[in-house]
Amino acid sequence: MGLKKSKMLSLLFRKRRLIQIGSLIFLIVIPLLNLLNLEVVTGNYYSLRIWKIEFVDPLFALQHLLLTLKFNWQLLMGISIPLLIAFLGGKLFCSFICPYNLLAEWLQKILPAKKTNVFKVNAKRYWAVLIGWIILTVIAGFPILYFVSMPGQIGVFLGDLIFLKVMGVESLMILAVLGIDVVFLKRIWCRELCPVGALLQRFHWNYGLKINYNEIDCVCSTDEIDSPCVQRCPVYLNPKSDPLYPACFNCGECVKECYYYGEALKIKFIKDITNFEPNFKQRKEEQTINKEEA
Amino acid sequence: MGVTRREFIKTTAAAAAAASIGTTLLPGGVKPLFAENDMEWHKSVCRFCGVGCGVLIGVKNGKVAAIRGDKFNTINKGHLCVKGFYLHKIIYAKTRLTHPMIKKNGKFEKVSWDEALNFVAKKFNEIRKAHGPDALAFYGSGQAETEETYMANKLFKGCIGTNNMEGNPRLCMASAVGGYLTSFGLDEPAGTYEDIEQAEMFMLIGTNTAEAHPIVFERIVRHKMKNPNVKILIIDPRKTPTDQVADLHLFPKPGWDLAILHAMARIIIKEGYADEQFIKDNVVFKDNKKNLTYEQYKQFLEKFTPEYASKVSGVPVEDIVKAARMFGQAKTAMSMWTMGINQRTRGVWANNLITNLHLLTGKIGKPGCDSFSLTGQPNACGGVREGGGLCHLLPAHRVVKNPKHREEVAKVWGVPVSNIQPKPGKHTVAMFEALNKGEIKGIYIMCTNPAQSLPNASKYWKGLKEQFVVVAESFFPTATTKFADVVLPAAFWAEKEGVYGCTERRSQYMPKVLEPMGEARWDAFILRDLGIRMGFKKEFEKYKTAEDIWNEYISLTKGRDLDLSGATYRRLKKERGLRWPVPSEDHPGTYKRYVKGDPIFDELSEEKKKGRWIYFYGKPEGKAVVWARPDKGPEEPTDEEFPFALSTGRVLEHWHTLTMTGTVPELNRAVPKAYVEINPEDAKALGIANKDQVIVETRRGQLKIEARVINRPKKGTLFIPWHWEEWMANILTIDAFDPGSKEPEYKVCAARIRKA
Amino acid sequence: MSWFEKFLNKVADYRQPLRPPGAINEKDFLQHCIRCRRCVEICPYQSIKVVKSGLGKKSGTPVIIPRQVPCYLCMKCPPECPTDALQPIVQKEQVRMGVAKINQDTCLPYMGIICRACYERCPIYTEAIILKDEIYPVVVEEKCVGCGICENVCPNEEPSIVVIKRES
After folding, report:
1. Chain B residue nearest residue C116, CA to CA
2. How much is the average pLDDT of A147-168?
């Protein structure tokens, strides 16, 4: 049983790019189907209906709640599946579904930035940004995060273009964020600023799917930048460092890379939280001591 | 342009305020729209339906810029319908044909007039030589001017020598002609529109007056508004916009209304509403074979109890009784009908039965009393019925069978009398059938679109495709030009002068205010030049102006029942039309026929009249005929396989095959596409929702069309407006025709419908 | 007409946008609507367009521009809305999107031209638009649903009947 699950997981992560592309194509297919009056699916990643199953971006459910101070059962039902996924797998939405991430990853390939440094994750700053966004919504008095929710914006851009044949100025937000983020700011948007991912991460279970680093198996140098896993990470994190969360979106690229080196990185459900203490720092200290001793 | 919504609210409020304090907005009054000073206005006639509204053409800088109702025309008194209002836009339509074209290797190529006419003349002469004159045919129109039809008549019947000379009024008016001829002995109604304002009761049967003849409807409505005791009875299988003013509406099953009319006659006689003195003096009775006595007629009617009529037609008994009493009790009554009666395999009979009611109650010949057939085309009465544009007619209500008539006409035409064949030619359906079979090798189609307007249209495309087809049209492309070998650009309304004769026997003059667009030429002169090129130089070269043709035509009407000799161009240009008989230039025209004031009645000798106030001089002893016609249903009744009765008709905003109204964006906006009206109950049973695509099928074809679920057609009936080429309703209609009038039964056929 | 005028007209048109059937009042609507376009996509007639006004408050909200395509009241959009911005209405007669106003200065029947385009196509047939004296169209404001079919079909160059948002 356990084997089966891990096999499935590994298959899922190996096919990540395919799923991402599929997700983008899905956004194009929805308006096309609706043009033919086939009403199987409607919407985009703000809110989606597949047959009779509803999906709603939790961020928009939250905005709705804050703006209207009313509970809406339909919305609550709609966020249940996204939240369940977030609970078990963290920001899997970002790594697998979000079309913005796909575009950003492609753009990264075209314009590879020099790896100069690796970012440390600051959890307090991370959550503060989310709270900032929410306060902005309340002040604005309308769902202003509509403009900065990239997956939704890309969805409505495609939808409006295909279904209504119109384009709007607000779609320039996508280009602006994409350009600045990838070219100048090293994916800070996905790593720290994006409210959609942040809210999903808020629901990530401590025992959910996480990147697990086993230093005993690690064959690479302790160098923060030269490690293959670090080189591979789309959001410039160091999987060997702590803490990886809340910034990591579980794309599994580092795990795939590590497969060729020593399988020190694994993505799996954490059984015991105490086991999951990457003692990279400790090891580094030990090394320093060893050096000194030598 | 560019009023924001807020500003608009302000203007609306202002208008509402103005209205409430009494500055009423006068209908037909001069509105900002017409307030242009440098506009030059010319009196003319509307190009659309047979009502014959007077219009003023506003010309500015050599272009027609506006159309306005003519306040001094007694027909419409300044009012117009929305089609007429946009008439000027049609002149400048993108689809105007501006140069002659010959089809070479399947493609139309621009050619000169000389080349086109020489080609047609050569082709026609070859066909005539090889296959005889009857291998040629002409198909004209109730929209062509009287002068144009007259020229075609002369060329084909008089010069080429074939009676295959028809017109589309065969498809709309022939049954009314048959009805009037059999009942009164002479074609066209006795009364005029003036009767509307004096009638106490209207029977509208088989007509959607509100949409097909809006101005007549408007007059009825205004009359009823002023006189609330005026009663309106409607007999129609469909609830039409006309229905809004109805006091009583009978919904017969399509094609089953003859029994109702008989039952009404029976009640009228039984309950003493009949004018026995009038019947004694002025009426004879007949059935299909022999003369009857009054008693025998009563005996014949015994079968038509209200219960029987109710069983046949599906109308409740009490409604039939109410309708009969309504007709009987009213002091004056006017009945009006159009295609619902005419386009039937028993159209002539239905016409007779309506007239019967008037003859039995004596409601004819008096002010406010008439059996009044409404015409669908602007010059069906003037050009084709009076001008003799059908295969059995000659100008001025003459027939080809009559040797005296042939002689009179041949003399004026300047052709040997032997040229005019005594045998009627092929009527419309037979003509296109013969085209299919190859019996007719060449046809000249003028000002009409038979490829779309013929019943069971797709059947007749074969002949049009195979034979030599010349189409003279103002617009290109149309459904018919697709099959043409030669297309000739014809001048449009306002680019030519001529006379239109409307429903109420009124002939009105239309001036030429513009030069024809491009190389377009007047149809009558195209025919003249074609005639000359075919070798009839002597017969045709004398016509230099429209007036020449008109003068020759009115000389033929001298002494006939439609005497137009007083209606010269000089007079017509001044006056708003004249109603014949107009025997001399100082005669004011005739309000009512067969009674005092009608010059023909006045001239009758006293011993003939014997003191009678009405004399139907078309019949022996001046007695009109009450016909005991058997009742009969439609040619193709509904059955299990095809359970719906399909009917076609018009909408207010469009006209005929859209060659004109389809070019006006404003009218297309109002009704952009065809639809099939279906009763909500039927729709529910078949799972059809409003605006669904459905397939309507008959034994002749099928049509994919949008459904309009609306409580208008009776349960079990469907209705399609027939204007669109893309959704061609005539693919479905049946081409069975009335044996008397040869008019096809467009209005009833069996169909089925399903969701696409 | 210059492009600038066109642009201004477009902006003016959006000033009081007509919302899809079942929409709550404008102020709440802007808060409830999450701009997800599901009503736009479910509409079989493409009646529902999207406000494209940059980063404004109304940007991304659904709107009906009757002169382009009116609402045919198929009532598919209210149940599609994931929030309560569109209240689920089933009966078309209950819709109160707006109210039609007739400009008697330009309306053809008031000028003596017979025209029944709006009256004939009104989905609340013979109730929401009536013909005074069987000639002059008059809007019965209590019955009018504001679908805009009348504005769409008006055969005047500039519509003489315009649907204005109801102020509730």
Report:
1. B652
2. 92
